[in-house]
Design brief:
heterodimer, A: 291 residues, mainly alpha, MetI-like fold, 72% helix, B: 252 residues, alpha/beta, Rossmann fold, six-stranded mixed beta sheet, four-stranded antiparallel beta sheet, 10 strands, ATP hydrolysis activity (chain B), ABC_transporter-like_ATP-bd (chain B), iron transport (chain B), membrane (chain B), ABC_transporter-like_CS (chain B)
């Protein structure tokens, strides 16, 4: 009797789970998106005067959205690329040391630090009045604080990228370590050597392809996450262009009420682009069955 | 002799895992090696293949010393106990792996892989990924990938240990055919007495890090330390028991 009850119970539990997911996860997001869409076409909001495409035209014409999106994508892309490269190098170079519990704990630590704290730490470290600047002054490398290079709120977004690196490298290191163990890459390395591969061939034909193929979805998701990050670019970014989330919030908080629908236009466009990217990312591919 | 191992020694944490190990093997012959778990069989194979450095001793291949050569320079393939395939490559690419390393042209690689796949009865599986095959099929791919590069010596570490008895029997017969077809010299480690007798041209018994290779299979069967006689007596007693039960049934 119990055997018959089990699938029913399982179905009931999974149905409840799906319902909860829809109520708590999908519905609020869908409602917010529809509200933003209606606001962007002038159908709701304090200055609503019926359907209009003027806010969309304005955003597209000024090009601030595309500039900001390109800027955000460049920063996120550079940060993810550097993080993956550095994390791969550290993981493969120090994988034996990383088996030590204390060292592993040190890798976990930065993951517990919020982005906001990391951003302030970067300011303390790299600003013109910061720690490095003071050391440079004390060691007479510079004569006044203004001579210290712009490393925060700068054109090249060095501060933002550095903050992202400190936040993501530990995550990727732990991810790669985990995949290294689960996929038995050490055994596969030995096997490849035995089949005649050199160290370079083992790295390029076995270790890196397995690690990267197994983690590519998470790497792409992290890119999307960084694309929409807010606190770090808010504190460490420059006035213009800004990263996309900072731009959206800035538009929504404008005193000029006409600008608010434009903020919603930016938010809707960004959501659509990210949603398309996510669908593309998770689409099952016939040729690539190794996930 | 084609493969000569002289006085190999290896210690891990002051414990002698392999001690004064010496033996010889002729070309195109298979030496079956029996021994209990932890007696040093795997370490011995890894030292011969260059994956583990010996503390002392020498390995000669076709008259040339290979003791200090890197694994990729020895042309000896060490095959794992499990069917370890490259998970990111198709079956075709798994078999072709060693050939691609040698930068052989694509047409020659395709021809060789196709021929090997036919020998292994895997010609319909070449586009699949490793996780889509059964354990026996994966083990065949593993063999094919090793044999296709024409290794001087194949080092097999309990290759059929994880297979069910039916698949195991088919794999034993396939291995015998392959060794004949591709003229393979091999060391074959197994726990299974019957498998050791079936697969090996010669049989060795490893104990406490030392290997004794028997002159003939009869010498091996006669040695009381190997446990063969106990095994034979066990099956004989079962046969006698079954026979007497049958007699009783007929009498009744």
């Amino acid at each position: 009797m119990k055997i018959l009850e089990r699938p029913l119970l399982k179905n009931k539990t999974s149905a409840t789970g799906i319902l909860l997911f829809i109520v708590l996860g999908v519905l609020p997001f869908a409602a917010a998106f529809i509200y933003a869409l209606l606001y962007s076409f002038g159908l709701v909001g304090v200055i609503s005067s019926g359907f209009t495409t003027e806010f969309w035209v304005s955003v597209i014409k000024t090009g601030s959205f595309f500039k900001s999106l390109g800027y955000s994508a460049a920063i996120a892309g550079i940060a993810v690329f550097l993080s993956v490269v550095i994390a791969l190098w550290l993981t493969l170079k120090f994988k034996s040391a990383l088996e030590n519990k204390f060292i592993l704990m040190m890798v976990y630590m930065p993951l517990a630090i919020p982005g906001l704290a990391t951003a302030f730490f970067i300011i303390q470290l790299l600003a013109k009045g910061g720690f490095l600047s003071r050391i440079s002054y004390a060691s007479r490398l510079i004569n006044e604080s203004n001579e210290f290079p712009d490393l925060v709120n700068d054109n090249l977004a060095l501060g933002i990228i550095l903050a992202f690196l400190t936040m993501i490298i530990p995550f990727f290191m732990l991810l790669f370590l985990n995949v290294y163990k689960n996929e038995r890459i050490e055994d596969l390395r030995i096997l490849a050597y035995s089949l005649g591969a050199t160290s370079r061939q083992v790295r390029n034909k076995v270790v890196l392809p397995i690690l990267l193929k197994k983690t590519r979805v998470l790497i792409a998701l992290y890119f999307i996450f960084l694309l929409g990050s807010y606190e770090v670019p808010l504190i460490l970014g420059q006035e213009s262009p800004q990263m996309i989330s900072v731009l959206v919030i800035q538009e929504l908080k404008q005193y000029d009420l006409d600008k608010i629908p434009e903020g919603y236009v930016v938010a809707v466009m960004y959501t659509i682009i990210v949603a398309i990217a996510a669908v593309f990312l998770f689409l099952p591919r016939k040729r690539e069955q190794y996930v | 002799m084609f493969l000569e191992v002289n006085n190999l020694n290896k210690k891990f944490n002051k414990e002698h895992v392999v001690e004064a190990l010496s033996f010889e093997l002729e070309k195109q012959k298979t030496l079956s090696i029996l021994g209990k778990s932890g007696c040093g069989k795997t370490t011995m194979l890894k030292m011969i293949s260059g994956l583990v450095n010996p503390d002392s001793g020498n390995v000669f291949l076709d008259g040339n010393e290979v003791t200090l050569l890197k694994p990729e320079q020895r042309n000896m393939v060490y095959l794992y106990q499990e069917d370890l395939l490259f998970p990111h490559l198709t079956i075709f690419e798994n078999i072709a792996f060693g050939l691609r390393l040698k930068k052989i042209n694509s047409k020659a690689i395709k021809d060789q892989v196709d021929q090997m796949a036919h020998s292994l009865e895997l010609h319909n599986q070449l586009d699949k990924m490793p996780h889509q095959l059964s354990g026996g099929q994966r083990q065949r791919v593993s063999f094919g990938r090793a044999i296709i590069i024409n290794p001087s010596v194949l080092l097999l570490d309990e290759p059929f240990g994880s297979l069910d008895s039916g698949t195991r029997q088919r794999m034993q017969s396939l291995f015998k055919n392959l060794t004949r077809e591709y003229k393979i010299t091999s060391l074959f480690i197994t726990h299974d007495l019957k498998e050791a007798i079936l697969m090996g041209d010669k049989i060795g018994f490893m104990q406490n890090g030392n290997l004794h290779v028997y002159e003939s299979k009869q010498d091996f069967l006669n040695d009381p330390t190997t446990g063969v006689n106990q095994e034979i007596n066990f099956w004989k007693s079962l046969q006698i028991e079954a026979g007497s039960e049958l007699k009783n049934t007929i009498n009744e």
